[in-house]
Amino acid sequence: MSYTFIVIIMGIIMLVMAFTAIYHKNLKVAVIASGIISLFASVIYIFLAAPDVAITEAAIGSALTVVIFFYVLNKIRLTDDTK
Amino acid sequence: MVNPVFIIVVLLGAGFLLGLFRKTGISLARVAGLLALAFPLYVSVGWMLHFIGQTAQPYVVYTAGTVPPFSINLRMGPDEAFLTAAINMLGFFGFIYLFRLFKSQGVSTIILYLVLFMGLNVIVMTRDIFNLFVFLEIASIALIGLVLVNKGIDALSAGFKYLIAVSVISSILLVGIGFIYYYSGTLNIDGFIENNSLVMKGLSTAVFLVLVAVVLELKAFPANGWALDVYQSAHPGISALISAGTATASLFVLYKLLPFGGHLWLQVAAVIGLVTFVGSNMLGIAQKNANRLLGYSSVGQIGLLVAVIGFSDDLGSHLRMIFFGLFISHFLSKAGLFWLSGMAGEEEISKWSVLRKKPALLLIFGMFVFSLIGFPPFPSFYGKWQLVMDLSGNGQILWIALILLGTMFEGVYLFRWLGFAIKHEVDESKAPDTAAEKMIPAGAFALLLLGASWVSNAYFPGAMKTSFLPLYFILFLFLIDFLPLVIKNTLSILSLGYYGWRLYPSIQDDTLRLVFAGIFLIGGMLTLFAGYSEKGKRPGFYPFALMMYAGLIGLVEADNLFGFFFAWELMTMGSYILIIRGKKSLVHAYNYMLFSLGGALLILFGIALTVAGQPDISLSMLASPAYPGWAYALLAVGFLTKTAALGLHIWLPGAHAEAESDVSPMVSGILLKAGAFGLVILFLAMGGGEAGRHPLLYALGWLGALTALGGNLMAVFQEDAKRLLAYSSVGNLGYILFAFSFMTHIGWLTGLTYSINHFLFKTLLFLAIGGVVMRVKTHNMYEMGGLIKRMPWSFIAVLVGIITLAGIPPLSGFAGKWLFYNAVIAKGWFLQGALVFFAGTIAFLYCFKLIYSVFLGQEKDRFRKVKEAPVWYIIPQFILIVGIMIFSARPEIVLKPIGALLSQAAFFPSEPLAWENVTAYTNLGYWSGFNIMLVIGAMFVVLLGWLLLMSRKAQKVKQFNIVYAGEAPFTPETTHFSHNMFAPYNKALGFLIHPVATQFWLGVNNTFHALAESARKIYSGNGQSYIIHIVAYIVVVYLILS
Amino acid sequence: MELATKTGFVLLGLFIILNWGLIMAGIIRKIIARASMRRGISVFQPYINLIKNYSIRSQLTHGVMFYLGPVFRLSGGVGIFLFMPLIHDSEIWSNFSFAGDLILIAYFMFFGMLGMALGAGEGGHPYSAIGISRGLAQFTAIEVPLTLAILSIAFQYNTLSISEIVARQQGGILNWTLFTNPLATIAAMISFLGAMGHAPFNVVMAPQENPIGPPTEYHGTFLGVLQTNRAILHVIESVLFMNLFFGGASNWFELIVKTFFIYFWSVFVGMVFPRFRVDQSIPWLLKIPVLIGILSIVFILL
Amino acid sequence: MNLPGIEYLSLGLGIVLFLAGLWGIIHQKNIIKIIISFSVLDTSIHLILVSIGYMRNRTAPIIDSAVSKTDAASQVVDPLPQALVLTAIVIGVGITALMLTYALKLFNEKGTLEIDKFKSLKW
Which of B696, B704, B835, D72 could potentially form a cystine with B738 if both were Cys, beta carbons 3.0 to 4.6 Å apart? Predict the structure, then answer.
């Protein structure tokens, strides 16, 4: 039962993050929000008896993706001085 | 046989190894890549050959040393072998095509290329659904990477849209796969199909997600804007891979997965496929960009193939054959067309005339286009035939209609394009890119297409009876096209003669066929004769002329419906190319082709409704069609497009008038009889006596009468000599239609007499006028005049021609008129008869105009030095005149056997025409061609002698020695009364020739163009709206299904 | 019958017809003159014209077709005569009618017309061509009611043989087609007006517009030939209508009387009615007479 | 209170996130935002797959001291969906990376990331 509450709370946070990711004007914030969704998802995977998936998601889905995003955002900002 | 898993090993290994190369090693890398691609080709072709030789069993590779569901397995069966062979063929030649490009792109592009083809191979072979997903993704990523080969914003934005769309689709696929596993506990395709014959509720949603994703992957209309952009903007070499390669793999995925959905999904696939086929091709009508147009066509063709898979229950054991035919044509042609697009280097289809600088390219282009539409001998012809036959056998009439409609739309744009390539103005500054690495793939695929045609011919059950001798000769003519004209012309004439000699014993008892064979073969030889006067080599003329004649004679020879239709299409193809050779023929040939194509499709439809899946396809099947009413009506209308009945005639005047001088008699005097022969076959099958009261025949009778009137009336007001003759052909074919629809003994005699006469005099007139036009370089009659002094022989020919045409005794035209009256009175069709008679007198008007304006009246200054028409034109004319004379004096030689044939029990035994020596008797009257000839001849000679005696001192005067208001006119132009000669007639009856038909067809054309123009606005270019299309498509399909 | 004898009778018949044609032309012109309060020419004026024309010495020709035109024209006239049975039930006066029937004659009319058109066409004078184009145009419309009438009576008598049609009308005046099929007769007789070239259908040879058409270009012997033809043609076409609608003739006297009245009908109408332009005459012919012709067929079918 | 099992919760969460991601793809005009939305969508699919592979009261498919080899079949959850998800994650990253590459190139070409500006090809 305790898992259930945790999952519900995390789910609500993830939904908020999803809203942020999609609607937030600042791209960096949005990227981080999407990373958080990924991270929270990996926590849920542990509850769902999938620790290996959780590790992969945390490492690749969350960390690596965010890094790539930032890399590209950086490049775009470098070329576009106005933003 | 090499284990197929090595395909993956080699491609993947090569990909990794190539990663070690630097920029400097690019040359080596390219060779290595090519070798790496040659290996899978070798493997899969080897498997395919073994399967064909039946020396191999389907082979399954188990990975991880266990059997499914605990491992992934690959299968190499006949289907897989064939498809991987095709894909690897594409991979190999596609690589060659991009060979130079790779040099500038670097090693990474080569790696992407290898990965793409590894992915495609696995997609075909794998039996694991998740594995399938993975490799679909891998192939997509590789492909999208390859799109980047083309620099520039277009390719980039298109690639991005494609990427987003594919990602969304594969997400759906993945969710579906997850649910499938959840409900069924297996990812193995075979295992799933075995265990889950009963579809559960939840499972059906899972299956829905998987299948709808696969369908979307196949670019279902209208959720396919994302794919079109890539087709348009990617490098043509890459577009070829998408159109031929990934689509092939995806099709096979659908084929593998469709059993998941059971019967319901088969129907869904059929509907989706056909909607795609029709919709995409319709939107193509308004498209002018070559690559995007190919995209539309590609989407449409894939839709058709999806539909074929959806029909698999109906097609049964024919499924593979049909699929092969349609698939291989699409595969080879589409890849080839994209490659050609890269070579032409032109985006606007109207600029493809640049191909003309390399005739070989033009030839290949034409092959691909005809193959896409489904002309013989290309495989798609067989596929489409069998598909339509089988569908009709299962009562799927509506589907047939949609397939034919889609084909028609496709023809609209493909033939416009082909026409541009053959005929549009050339921009001299440009030339096609004919580098060897581009020529090799295109040429190889053209050859493969020929090979596939040969295979289709060899293995198609009905094709055995079709004679291929003419086709081989045509091929031979292509090969010797570089030789001088004299040799080719002589060979062509001899071949027709030889063929006739060879054919004669088999048809000598069948007078009906003999007559038409005579018209086609003798007419062919005579008209080819005129070709000797041409200068230069006349490249490309003879193969197509012979193709037309092969088709014509094939019609006569055919003893089954397949052979008949085969010949019909062959004839259409040849004649189209002949017609488009004329200087201003672009539009007219296009119109001709569209009407011919429409007519051919209707004929196909009619045959399908006749045969309805029965194994017997002999001509006698027409006697008892499965759906008599529709079959007869469709066949009749199909044949009427060729005879140019009123309403379907608008293509004829331009096509016949603008054709070359010696082509006009071919297409007008001879080709039109094909339609007449079709009607003969059709009406005969409808049976004698009883069928004479068929309402269709009554309608056709009226149509014939109105055509006769309309055609002749329009001829009267022409200023263009050849156009006048062309309209006259419309009218004369109206007579023939009218006479045949009597369905009586004398009616048929009339029709056949008209047919023979029309052949004789129209060939004669077109040859004569053609000779004149060659000399004076204009078609306008009012610009000519007084040519009798320059061209006396042509004048005599025209005189004989018009006397025959007008039906004045003693020449043979009167035979037709006399029979006609007897038939009308016996049948009781007085009103129609009077109408046709009126048309006959009108014919007299244009006959006079023709001979007067051209040969009499005032000679013009600029034509005072023209010579007589070439002797090669005069000789056949006089042979024809001899023919007319013989037929006039001794009509019984021809008519008696025909009458005897018609009297046979099967046809029209009643009210025969009796012959007593040279006099024909009916129960109404009598007529003796020979006596009339004798009496009139004797009288004419006597009277001429009398006049000669009385006016022996007659003095010849000069041109302007006429009484002309007190002074001599200054110029011939002011004294030549020709332009708008029948002005009062126009004032009185001109309203009858209001161009209703032209406006109608123009309206149809505009409507479809406007429809296509507005409908294609859904492809707004906005990537997000494409995603919305995808989502909406899923929702709509789901709602319809539930 | 032997060919020589046959030919002899045919020539004799032709001679009679020619003379009757010339005399009739003279009489008619006299009547017209008197009706217009003129004294008129001599009844034998056509003979005088003919002789004069044949004996004119200077002859000009514009070319081969110009030369052959009159031959065609006369062949047309003589040809119709040759294929026409003249006297009912008389083998010697049936000419060569065994070679063909009504349809042959209907179509042979074109022969002369074509020849004339071509000959005049080569004459080089635009007015000739204008007259011919008008004439042909009008002729197409004239033929329609005639065709309907022919179809009607062919169906009525179930034959196309002229001799047979005549035979079926024997035995009293009420057996004539005139009474058994009056509508067909009316339609045909309207066509006859056109064929004879009198008003209202004679704009084709309108003298004031066309003073120098064929009659002027053709002079001397050529004109003589044409006049010969005209004399034959008028009679023989009257004979055709006599055979079809007025019971034929059982002797020469009957033939002469009947052809006179039939021909006079066209002259009479021409005196009374004004002239149509071509673009007026065509619609007119295609309306009322065609309607009558159709009605005649409908009645026969009923 | 009888709460639904966590697998249903996470499944529902996954579906909602899926729709949210789809909405973002359709609705957002900025290309980077579209890619972010796609990454949300991607994550949601993983969530869905893992949750439908879950079996209640079973443990992770790792054979150690807690789960003996012989009882594994009845005690652990099905490992296959998890293996699938592992693959899918890797593929998802690959695609995201490719999308970003495209985004970068598009930006370099035209200096903007508004997807509405890339409509040169149409009809």
Answer: B704
